[in-house]
Structure prediction request, 319 residues.
Amino acid sequence: MTDISPLKVVAPARVRAIVEPRLPDGVDVQWFSDSAQAIAMARDAEVAWLDQFSLSDRVEAILAAEKLKWLSTIIAGLDALPLEALAERKVRLTNGSGLNSETVADYAVMGALTLAKGFPDVVRAQDRREWLEVAPGRLEMDGTRALIIGFGTIGRMIAARLTPFGVEVTGVRRTADPTSGILGPDDWRPRLADYDWIVLAAPATGDTRAVLSEAEFAAMKPGARVINIARGDLIDQPALIRALNGNRIAGAFLDVTTPEPLHINDPLWTAPNCIITMHLAGRSQTTMLTKGAARFVDNLHRYTKEEPLLHEVDPAKGY
Prediction:
């Protein structure tokens, strides 16, 4: 008889109770509890789920996994992973696209409402026990227009939430669809002055780096507000600070910055009408790990059957 070795898998111990009862036959899983274990166990793994630790430890574990054929992550954005090495080694990659889309979309809409109504000033007035007689923000959502750059899962969810407020939404994606009001990657810049809201929901790639810079801020209407729930490097941050300090735009809601965490003395902290939410959008939920574990098990069954993996992405492209 031919000896068939079990599939060697490495995964976080915190999902063991969810994953273990549903494992396919012929799978040998090692469960790690700290980064040192993850790095050591990854060396012999064919399949690995290595989320949990600092970026440097995660990258070290991935690079140590010389036998790796499939890397699973519950993170949607891939820019922090060693994509070049994964592509060179032909490692398959699945990400967490869609696992926390709802909560990120909620955060984007919260950002719009917060900017529209000047809510930070309301909170500060409460801290001072001061009764305001005039609302600090009086922009009405109804009748405003939003441009969502990155009209994937999260972008569409943001649109679905903004539309009932009376906001007219235009999406931007790699392939235009004029019948649905979807602009292509080269179509939106000449129309920037038409929009009250510019929402960034695109992946971080070479094509999207500094997609909003000096020229784009100069082209926006003075009342425009920027919302970024994607990645910090989609914005030329010094250019944004200049636009805010010069009152060239009306405000910004940033869940992401460059770098993260933002240095204590970074001028972005004190830029006028700028709200920074410390990359909390995706963390403002309790179900992502459970959903990610279920997806991992589903893909494990698919992997052992040589079926297509769900949410597989191309490391060479970054999406």
In short: DSSP finds ten helices and 13 strands in the chain. Residues 107 and 221 are 24 Å apart (CA to CA). The domain at 101-283 is CATH 3.40.50.720 (Rossmann fold). The longest strand covers residues 7-12.
